[in-house]
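Bit of a strange request maybe. I'm writing a small parser for structure token strings and I need a real example to test against, not something I typed by hand. Could someone generate the tokens for this chain?
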Amino acid sequence: MGARVAKSEGGPRRRFDPWRFGIWIALVVVVVLLMAVSASFRSTSNLTNVLQQNSLIGIVACGMFVMMVSGGFDLSVGAVGALVSVAAAAISVDVSVPVAILAGLALGVFIGLLNGVLIAKGRINAFMTTFAMASVVTGVMFIATSASPVVGNVGFLQQVSLFGTFIGLPEVFFVYIAVVVVTWVLMRRTKWGHYVYSLGGNRDASFLSGVPVVSAQTLAFCFGGFMAAVGGLLLLGESGIGQPSSATDWPLTAIAICVIAGVSLQGGEGRVQDTVAAALLLGVVDNGLNLLNVSPYVQPTVTGTVILIAVAGDQISRRRSVSATRAGARKPLPASGSGLEVPTPDEQVASGAPVT
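Reply from user aminoacidic:
Good idea to test on real output. This should exercise your parser:
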């Protein structure tokens, strides 16, 4: 008959799966290799520069992460960031910097709300909705500014995003880490976060289970708009001007970061902490290639290869996880309170016992 099941306090132990941390392993390997071959890369000033340069797009990627987990994405985050930087620059000169910050954040949330209502309630495709919104926002911005940059009063923002340091690290990096922590708490420790994961996994089943899918996904896009606005304000702090043509690469870069981090394009899966590794991985690769004087024609090939390796590692992890789950589901369960395994039907037939 079945053997006695070994008991352990705290439930069954989970075997360590290195592929679960594939993106972090890839980041460490790339950093170690670049530090070994380039003295310039391992300098403190360069490593600090990498953190500073990639914190801004990392913040935008946190908003994209939430929207993608909900089952959508936003191609207008770049236009929103540019619009916020232009509007905040103008308001900072005409009114004050605090009012400019509040107005910029409100503007980002408002555009996110429009996207969310159209996608969640209107059931319009996310690609078409956000692509059209990006075109509208960019067009209005170009008309209002005549496609000219707007100089702002950005003393405080410039201190945070460009010059400020804390314990030797850029202040903007700590803003990024704070955003990651807040996003993790919202997604893992709140009812709304569970709703977002649920509707991203299966919208119809979530609706039938009582999940407020419209409001949950609308809030996800509001959050994405808010993070794009934060990025726009920090972009203004970096450059000192609101540039209507800026941030055009944000949407695809943020989506790439999320995909590399293991966020499903269908929604319902992903860990925000992995987006940190993905953002830094892309930034480290770009920085290292520049320091090694690699031809700009070759750099996209190398970057694309790194992305493919990272995504392949994530897929291996997912398949191993699914296989382990299925194997666990097929494993005979112990009889309640007996500490013994329930024999399979084949074992019962072989022992002469009646099949149950």
